[in-house]
Amino acid sequence: MDGGHHGGPGGAPHTHDTQADGALADILDLDGRTFPDFLPGVTDWIAAGTPAVPRRIVDLGAGTGTGTMALLHRFPEATVVAVDSSAEMLDRLRAGAARAGYADRVETREADLDQGWPDTGPVDLVWASSSLHHMADPDRVLADVLRTLTPDGVLAAVEMDDMPWFLQDAADPALAESERRCRAELTRRRQEDLPHLGDDWGSRLRADGFAVLREHTWELAVRGPLSAEATRYAELTLRRIRAAVADRLTAAELAPLDRLLDGDGPAGSGGLAGRDDVVVRSRRLGWLAGR
């Protein structure tokens, strides 16, 4: 879930609140650590379906660079151009690339894709992870992608069908119900703010001139007790979801979730640490498309 940082988990519009942006950056990093096998599996899936080994890659909506790092690791001859609208995210990405020894293989472009395509040159692979649904006009962006691809180039698009779930196996049914109520309101809000979320991207790609080469669905689940990083991921994501719908639910509807998040536990975990009834579930959908 490296891209699409405009709203991130919770679906709230991107703001310039430093604390909120920092929490979102942490969520993007922690997603990769919570599901450590996901990105290696996706990049293997891409490699198995590409006509040629990519040498120049664009990461659209790169966020903190979780996907960028996975691509650099899987394709050791490649350079990645990381595109994001947030200078802060790109700073974090560059720092991470330097720590990983990839500094000389990463270029960055601060750009709002709704305003136009940045200068990337021809590319062999465009990676768009949880970013396409944030575009005001996805068809225009996809047309830009198609023009940018080399003859054997491909687009790899990955989208969540929904935000991760955490509390549906909770021993206290009030927790599961509170999460469901939050999610129902979140869905309504996201339909207003993100009208392209949940689009039929396979059909859209075909309509926009792509040939869809592969499609895949990944069902991800991590069962409690969670690691410290997965616990922090759950806590931050649940807080972000709660904040996005707080003005739409009653105090009684939010109370079970609030008691959990405000519970005693290690710093940054609320009352989630050590629970064996917390299960992180997420479904990711992928399309590999060429000319």
UniProtKB/TrEMBL annotation:
InterPro entries: Methyltransf_25 (IPR041698), SAM-dependent_MTases_sf (IPR029063). Signal peptide: none annotated. Pfam families: Methyltransf_25 (PF13649). It comes from the Bacteria. Residues 57-153 form the Methyltransferase domain. Coiled coil: none annotated. This is Methyltransferase domain-containing protein. It comes from Nakamurella endophytica. The lineage of its organism: Bacteria, Bacillati, Actinomycetota, Actinomycetes, Nakamurellales.
